[in-house]
Structures are given as structure tokens and as C-alpha cells.
Predict the structure.
Amino acid sequence: MKKNYKKISRYGLLAFAIFVSFLPILNPLQIFTSLQNYSFDTFQRILPREVYPEDPVVIIDIDDRSLAEIGQWPWSRNQLANLTNQAYAAAALGFDVVFAEPDRTNPQNLIASYSLNEELAKELTSLPSNDELFAQAIKNHGTVVLGQALNNNEISKPSKTKFGLVIQGDDPKQFVTNYLGVQNNIKLLDASAQGVGSMSIGNNDAIVRQLPTFESIGDQLIPSLAIEMTRVAVGASTFQIKSSNASSEEAYGAQTGINNIKLGPLTIPTTAKGNAWIYFTATKNISTVSAVDVISGAIPPEFFEGKVALVGTSASGLLDLRSTPTEKNIPGVTIIAQFIQQIFANEFLQRPDWLFGAEFLAGLILALLITLSIQALGPIGGLSVLVGGSGGIIGSSYYFFKSKLFLVDPISPLIIALSVYVAVTFFNFLFTELERSRVRGAFAQYLSPEMVNRLAESSESLVLGGERKEMTFLFSDIRGFTKISEQYKDDPEALTQLINQLLTVLSNAILDHGGTIDKYMGDCIMAFWNAPTDQTNHRQLAIESAHAMNNALSKFNQSLEGSLDFKLEIGIGINSGECIVGNMGSDKRFDYTVLGDAVNLASRLEGQSSNYGLNMVLGENSYLQDSSYQMIEIDKIAVKGKSAAETIFTCFEPATKFADNFMAKHINFLKEYRSQQWDNANLLIDELISSPNELELYYKHMRARIDEYKINPPSSDWEGVYVAQNK
């Protein structure tokens, strides 16, 4: 039946793969757009935009303290005139505020509101209005840009533009968002300003990812507040909009949209609708000063020299809260500030038109390869292509974001690939059995056969949860792996083969002694005993396993004589103690593993083995009483990450022979060392290493430590505990 399935499905599944590849084009329910945005947001969270010290953007914040000291909003326009005058040195001063009505605190309003004597009324009439003071300050400043709010509530005309416009290619008004009307500033203020820009954030969803560069009302293009401030800051008088069918922007007659905005020396890449992707940084990275400090003169005017200052609010009750890919509920003014920042930093997220075609092609190729692999090699072969292809696509997307700031969509090709894989394997009735075999084979790499059989027979054990147990843990690591890797830098395949062969030999020694391999971490092995089955002699089994690993390593090195110019060495750390063991993770994906302080200590002890020149280091809880193994205390140590001292041991096989009085001298050495009798300790070391033995490197290490203590002695109440400086 399998052969029949292959014959029937060969061409049908290839056709299905091609059909699925077109799903991103169809984009049902905007699913692909939502997933695409999620991936782009993730990239920004991983690699947010950096802000450089020379960044010119500063926010003048109408914050809670400003309201508390000056009064509720809106403020009298004479206060805003003071603010404008204090920031006279700014290259551009923008207001993310609309002044749609005259100042209610104008002196002239007092005449109509209150019964005043004729003389006082005459005096008030002669005073300039606050709006006039503010307008004069704006005019004197010379680089002020006011905001305006576009809307569809009523039909109205925008403010008169104060810039020139050069259009290359198709008319951009057909691409940008069009509005019916606008809420303008009063004419007195608009006339005094150097520019007026829209404060709109465009047609974003709950998360702001783009800002418009231009929008329109009728036949008039309206620049955003951000790029209008930029224009004024750089002293440009004209915008240049390049659209499809412009020179070097061939669209073969099709009207594909806007390509970029040029402003003096600056070029702003846009989407087809004239929006710019915002490359966000943390709000804390935006220079911000309080408005009250500017008005009061606490911020000197020279602070604003050459800066682009944006007046907005973060005060409670005045907030225009927005969410971005990196932060939630931030003031809208900070988003405009971020846009200006990236314009001057020339760091733009881009999604060129050709990327969509490249993503489509990647999805199509991967879908076809998966289909062919499943037909030729079965589900496992298809899975390999799926995983490898997915990794390549994700890696490529990340690379292009990091190096080019290109927004490459990894989601669409991955959904296509996954859909094809699921659909094709659905028609392969052998899939279930193959998957079961794969799982059994995977467990067999980590557990002894008896434990694999128990797990297979007792499926209720494969559930999420854990239990507290006394266990023994073993960590093993290849010494000098970095140096070994350097020797194989031109032949990584050979290095991989070597390490896999060694790990196989070491793993077999563990499995042969009833151990469970928890995981491989590069060249490191983590194993444990007394789970999932009970093993009353788990300490003994772990130590036997360690010696078996050393013996297996010795034979492995012998088999490699002549092919390597070095011998492979390992370090082993063993510790026993209580931990939590069981299935850890989620209800969809979990691992059978252990958690606890005793596990961490075993890892730390392995790291210390090379320092002492020993193959094996044991924690005190793994010490075997009345054992045929030679257990030797070597030190009291406080490993990194633990304050409590641990007595540590090493262990030799029964066949290892020492002099009859060796243990007595060794114990005496430790006593003299811990009593800070350095000379006596050194004399004993001389005796202990007078004839070669397995502890020679250990004693040399201790002699070096004693020499250091002679120069920098420990405190008088020192109890012989060495504080480890490395893991």
C-alpha cells in the first residue's frame, strides 16, 4: 500500500505544495500579516536601535511636575512664549500640540468677563494678547514647527504649506492616506511658524510600527511633524518625493507606490504608502527635560544648541498612550522623537519590494524539497529538511535584520513548509509507527535498556510533574576542548566525528552502570542515578561508572595512537543529594530531568577537577564508607555560587597502590595546611611526592596555593576553606 500511495501522491502532493506556497499572496484573514508583524517585533526586541551620544533629539516634557508647579493644562501662552524663548538655540522646536483656540487667559478676555473700572479696562486693552506674545516668540525663534491634527470629522482646509515639493514619478497623493479635514492652529500662530506638520500616527493597529511621512487633504500633501521638523532643522526648503516610474525606479508602467523621501542630504526610505518603519529604542534612551525647568531657566538656553527639541506631554490625564514592538503604553510624543532620531542616525528598517518575491521563492523551494524528501526518505527525511530549512530561513532573517536592517519575513515560508509537511505525512500511514520508533530510539540514547522498557510499559510516567528523591549526579567534560577545536578549525567534520565517537564510548560506560543521561551540552555529559527506577547503591554505581569512563577513555586513546598528536582527557564531578526529578516543561513539550542545588554542585566540582589535577572530584555526600575504593579527602572548598563549604574527595580503584603510611601523611598534611603551618605542609608534600603517584599534580597545585598564602595569608580564624574563583 505504501508503494501505491507513492505512485498516486507523487504529482498530486507536488501540486499541493505549489498551491500552499501561494497562501501568503492570498493572505486569508490577514493571518500572514499578523504573524509577519510578530516576527518583526521580535527582531526589534532582540536587537533594539542604539542611541549615540551625538543624538540631537530632546523632548521637552509637559510632565506631572510641570503641571503641579505651573498649573493645569492648557497653560497661558505667555508661558509657552517663555519656553520658546528659552529654547532659542534649538535647530528646530516642534510642538506635538494643537493650539486650535485663542488663549482663554488673554488680558482682553478679562474685560468681557469682569466689571472693571474704565482706567483698568483701558490698560488691559493696550496689553498684547498672550497669543501675540507666543506668535512673536515663534517668529523670533525662526525654526518653530507646529502640529496639526488630521481627521475625517469635518471637511476643512489645511494650513498653507511652507515648503517646496519636487515629485519624481507617479503622483504620491494616490498612495498616501487621505483625510477630509484638519484641526489647525489659530492663524496668528500658523503664520508665525516656520512649518506645520501632521501629528497623525497613520493606520496602525494597537501597536505602532510605522509613521507616515506624508498624508493628504484633497489635493494638498501634508508632511508629518517629524519630517517637517527635520526639514527645518537641516535648513532645507524642498521635499523630493520619488515614486514608481521615476528615473531608476522602473515599475514597467505599474503604479507601485512611493519609494523614498529626500530632504537635503537625507534620504528616508518608505513603504509604497509613504510610511516609514520605525526602528525603536527604549524610551529611557531619549533625552528628556521637564518643561518647567526650561521655562524657569534651570535648563540653560545653550543646552539646546543644535538640538531638535520636541514639546509633548507625559503627564497623567494628558497622555496619548501608544504601544510599540518594544514597550507598552508610552507617550505618543516619544514615537515621533524616535522617528526623528533614526532620520539623523540614518538607520532605517526597510522592506524592499523584491523581498516578498524572495520569501515566496524560499517557501516554494522548501515546500517542494520537503515533499520530495518525504516521498524518498519518509517523514524523518522530510523533518530533517523542514528543520534545516527553517533554521536557514530564521538565521537568514536574523542576519539581514542585524546587518542590513532588512525586514525579512521568516513566518510565511515556515508556515508553508510546516503545512506541506503535515499534509504530506498525513497520507503516509507508516508515520505513526516511524514516529514511535524515533521516540524509542531517542530514549535509548539516554537511558539504559531496562529503563527504556519500563517507560514504554508505563506510559503514565510520561506526564508533567516531579518527585523529591535522593540521587547521585555526574558531570563529565572534555579538557582542552578549545585547543582541540583549534587544531580542527579547517576540518570541522572530523572534529564532530571525533567528539561523537568519544561521547559514545563515555555514554556506554554510563548506561552499562545503570545511569540515565540527562543531556549533552557540547562536549559535556550530565547523568544521574536512582531515577526513574530506584537504585539503592546509586553512589556506588556513579563511582563505578566514572572509573569505567576513564578506562574506556584510555582504550579510546590507544585506538587513536598515531592519528592524533595529543591525548584526550576528561574531568568528572560527582555529587549526591536531594532534588526534584520528573518531566519538566510544558504540557506540549517536556524533558525528563532534575532540578536542585545538589545538581549544580556536581557541575561545579567537575569544573574544579582540572584545577586539582585530578580525573574525578566527589562531594562529601557521595563519600562511600567501607568501600573497596580508595577515598581520599583533598580540600574544603566554597564553589562559585555557594557560600557553604564542601569537603571534597577523590577516588581511586582498589588496584591503585600507595605506600603503607601514605594516608597518615596525607591527613597530617591537611591538618598542617589548615593550621597555616605552611613550612610543615610543604615538607609533607615533599615526602608525599618523593615517589610518583596519582596525586602528584594535586600536591603541586597545593604547593602553589601555599606559596600564595605565604605572601597573602588568610585571616587568623581561617578554617582551611578555599574559595573557588572559577566555575
